[in-house]
Amino acid sequence: MTTKTVGWGLIGTGKIADDRILPGINAFTGNKLVAVVSREQSRADLFAKKFGAQHAYTNYADMLANPDVHVVAIHTPNDKHAEEAIAAARAGKHVFCDKPMATTVADAERIVRECEKAGVKLGVNFHNRFMPCFIEMKRIIDSGEIGQVMLAQLEASPGARPGGTLSSWRVDPKSAGLGTSNSIGVHVFDILRYLLSDEITEVTSLFDTPRNVMEQIALSIFRFGKGAMAQLTVHEIAPYPHNDIVIQGSKGRITGHGLTRSRAGGVMEVLTADGKTRTQEFPATNAHAACVAAFSTMVRDNLPVTPSGIDGLRSVQLTEAMAKSAWDKVTVRLAS
């Protein structure tokens, strides 16, 4: 382990950066927030003062020229990620990118390729992987306690958005790529890959809106390489959140009530082969901060990154397949 100070710069001063990412950067011993970038100087100045950054920029190229910045956190509209991540990599900076990593597979592949070429680390903000409930679910699945996983059912929803619709850049197909699927869905799509240690090979999806209109309901069926199937619904239109997960194994079952989003707590029930049930409560957790801390450790100690750029690429491959399935009314196979 080294005690080297790791300098961070952040592009994008939205709500998540304000509430979760910047506090998470500052909470990790050894991190130093060097710079923030916003389109407006007044907002950059405000965030720099609030979080103790030394510099406030309106042009990320100026930040990338700062030798004290070692890591760039990207929290801008989805279509900006590729340009910013590639520029950071070419400047020799490690990249911590918000999800989705890109809006197209081609751009996601470019990010991975450029980070590999530059020899910098690339991490993605799939913070659900750091929720204690999912860490425990994975431990149970990997232990074989519930046998071979055959079926997963999952729903994720924050409840209806204010005014009943998505807002800001998230309603623009060019900026957002997709609606609910990119807003909240990618987290739970990734968490199934994490839990099952497997890749999705086939997808069938339905959206509530036509092509290039941001969906607020996405219903999908996934088939995994080892044979498990999954049914997922993500939405931002029903008035009340419903965030449950069921994992059916050949010997038992895991049920999580209220656990598929990190901002609220819930209960996990494990039904085992002897017919007995045990329960465990999991309070709400700051999974964003845990994800930032994990990436900070990987940079500081030069460790392999997870969730990685490949995880980000797999996610974009999946959502692109989901959109094709929903819009063209076909089942889409993904390369394994």
* Global outline: globular
Largest sheet at a glance?
9 strands, mixed
Strand ordering within the main sheet: 14-13-12-11-7-10-9-8-15
Number of strands: 15
CA distance, first residue to last residue? 36 Å
Describe this structure in words.
- This protein has 336 residues and is α/β, with parallel strands linked by helices.
- It folds into 2 domains: 6-126 and 289-308, NAD(P)-binding Rossmann-like Domain (Rossmann fold); 128-285 and 317-333, 2-Layer Sandwich (Dihydrodipicolinate Reductase, domain 2), CATH 3.30.360.
- Helices cover 36% and strands 24% of the residues.
- It has helices at 15-27, 41-51, 60-64, 81-90, 105-118, 132-143, 173-176, 180-196, 287-300, 309-328, and strands spanning 6-11, 31-37, 55-57, 71-74, 94-97, 122-124, 149-156, 200-207, 217-224, 229-235, 245-249, 253-257, 266-271, 277-282, 332-333.
- Strands 14-13-12-11-7-10-9-8-15 form a 9-stranded mixed sheet.
- β5, α5 (105-118) and β6 (122-124) form a beta-alpha-beta unit.
- α5 runs antiparallel to α10 (309-328) and α6 (132-143) packs parallel to α8.
- The longest helix has 20 residues, at 309-328.
- The protein is globular.
- The mean pLDDT is 95.
